[in-house]
Amino acid sequence: MGTGVTHPMWPLFDLRLRTERLELRLPNDDEIAALCAVARAGIHPPDEMPFAFPWTDKPSPRFEREFAQFHWGIRATWRPDSWDLELMVAIDGRPIGIQGILASRFAQMRLVHTGSWLGHEFQGKGYGKEMRGAVLALAFEGLGAEVAETEAFFDNAASAAVSRAVGYRENGIGRAAPRGTPVDTQRFRMTIDDWRGRARPKVEILGLEACRELFGVGGDAGQAVAGR
Fold it and tell me: What is the pTM of this model?
């Protein structure tokens, strides 16, 4: 089967994760603008802050400029020993949010972290669990990760519910101060044994073979299917 590489200069643009309802892929510049509009329309109530860095508090046009700069910046600073893959989540081609997965010294640590957001109108429909499962399949089945970690503020029940639903275990307390006041977080951890210890929905992974060097790993995984 072919690798399907149409972007040899930046093969991450060919990477696709497909679930029952969603497709996850790296956004192009037009899609970054569409995602920015989704985020600007609202992710959370203004009196809440679910993110450790309060990027949703920024006023226009700073919000829009720095949203684009963030996505351009992670492309520009990508290294095999320090990477951040921020995938657009789309349903029927429509952008609805972002699912990120990042790592430092992945080849040595085999550890990834995840973070995500969904536009308010797309929340409560099970997409959060589905998109998290997609990047965990990429991590554990595609890249050979051994551990995945994430965290959420204690008042962010929806994020914590997703982590518990896909099989993370509680892993201590953290702290962040997004608006200047320290707030505790619940940390979560999943191992490869946790991942493989239950049946998982199918995730199709396309275009990974050409990207593996960018993630700091070797091997052959042009097309894979995770789940059973």
Answer: 0.92
